[in-house]
């Protein structure tokens, strides 16, 4: 019986790793009559009189180590550009800033982009918000870099976290960091 359960857990983890996930975002920039530069991820939110002045900007993390960086905001969700490294492979991704998550998570798609082999993960069962129980793979990332903040040997769980992100930026990364989110300008400022 235990052998069947173990095989089922391994098969579930392998299936999760094979699910593809892609995230791409564009920001639109326009300057209003007061000279204020505005950003939005929804072109429908640009006032009609400023549509000709819009510029499309890919969320390319042109300066990923800046103390102030652009973020994507969906309602109360703050999506931040991150750089993740596993066994020397570095990948750019988008994480949901989640002060309610104990640890960082990465999606199966990001695990695949990082060449994480499911056999190299420690598998356990985890209960998520809502009470559902999932098989979860645990890995130790070389580092996670967000703005000027780089933390080494970060524990992460491989589990689907949402449609708009590659993972969650949990408290094992955010603990002891100071930051301010400006919902109007879609920016986050790290430090004092």
Structure description:
- With 192 residues, the chain is mainly beta.
- It has a single domain (2-190), classed as Cathepsin D, subunit A, domain 1 (Beta Barrel).
- The chain is 14% helix and 43% strand.
- The chain has three helices and 14 strands.
- It has helices spanning 2-17, 108-113, 171-174; strands spanning 26-31, 37-40, 55-58, 68-70, 72-74, 77-86, 89-97, 104-106, 122-127, 133-146, 149-158, 167-169, 179-182, 187-190.
- Strands 6-7-12-8-11-10 form a six-stranded mixed barrel. A three-stranded antiparallel sheet has the order 2-1-3, with no helix packed on it. A three-stranded antiparallel sheet has the order 4-14-13, with no helix packed on it.
- A hairpin with a 5-residue loop joins strand 9 and strand 10 (133-146).
Q: Secondary structure elements and their pairing?
A:
Elements (H helix, E strand, L loop, with lengths): L1 H16 L8 E6 L5 E4 L14 E4 L9 E3 L1 E3 L2 E10 L2 E9 L6 E3 L1 H6 L8 E6 L5 E14 L2 E10 L8 E3 L1 H4 L4 E4 L4 E4 L2
Quickly describe the structure.
Pfam families: Asp_protease_2 (PF13650), DUF4124 (PF13511). This protein is mostly beta strands and 192 residues long.
